[in-house]
Design goal:
globular, three-stranded antiparallel sheet, about 10% helix, mainly beta, 2 helices, Gamma Fibrinogen, Chain A, domain 1
C-alpha cells in the first residue's frame, strides 16, 4: 500500500488486512533469519530489508507515522513450532532522533503474551554502534 502521511512524502508500506479486523501497518517482520538485524544506527534510522520478507521500516518513518494522532500497537510472535502469542497496547509512538527514538507505550489492552513489552516503555533505541 502507498500511504500519504500528513508530513513528509508518500511511502510504500505493508499492511496486514486480516488480523484483528485488519488495517495493521507492519514496521518489522522477521521470519527465516535471512536478514541480519544486528546493524548500526544509520540502518535503523533509514530502514532495511525487503517488505515482502524480512525488514525494518526505519525509525524516521515510524516516528513520522506515530507523531500525530493515537496509534495502537499489536505485537505478534510465532515460534518455529507454530505457537502464536500477541500483545496489544492502547497507543505507542517513538520520539525523534534527537531523543534517540525512545519508545512510548500506552496501557496494555489485550493478548496472551502478557505485558512483557511494557518494560521497554521509555527506553531509547540501541544499536551495535550506539548503546
Amino acid at each position: 500500500y502507498t500511504i500519504y502521511p500528513t508530513k513528509g512524502t508518500p511511502m510504500l508500506v505493508f499492511c496486514d488486512m486480516e488480523t484483528d479486523g485488519g488495517g495493521w501497518l507492519q514496521f518489522q517482520r522477521r521470519q527465516s533469519g535471512s536478514v541480519d538485524f544486528f546493524r548500526d544506527w544509520e540502518s535503523y534510522k533509514k530502514g532495511f530489508g525487503m517488505q515482502e520478507s524480512e525488514f525494518w521500516l526505519g525509525n524516521d518513518k515510524i516516528h513520522l507515522l506515530t507523531s500525530s494522532g493515537t496509534q495502537q500497537l499489536r505485537i505478534d510472535l510465532e515460534d518455529f513450532s507454530g505457537s502464536k502469542t500477541f500483545a496489544k497496547y492502547s497507543s505507542f509512538r517513538i520520539t525523534n532522533e534527537s531523543e534517540n527514538y525512545k519508545l512510548m507505550l500506552g496501557s496494555y489492552l489485550d493478548g496472551n503474551m502478557g505485558e512483557s513489552h511494557s518494560g521497554h516503555n521509555g527506553h531509547a533505541c540501541s544499536t551495535k554502534d550506539r548503546d
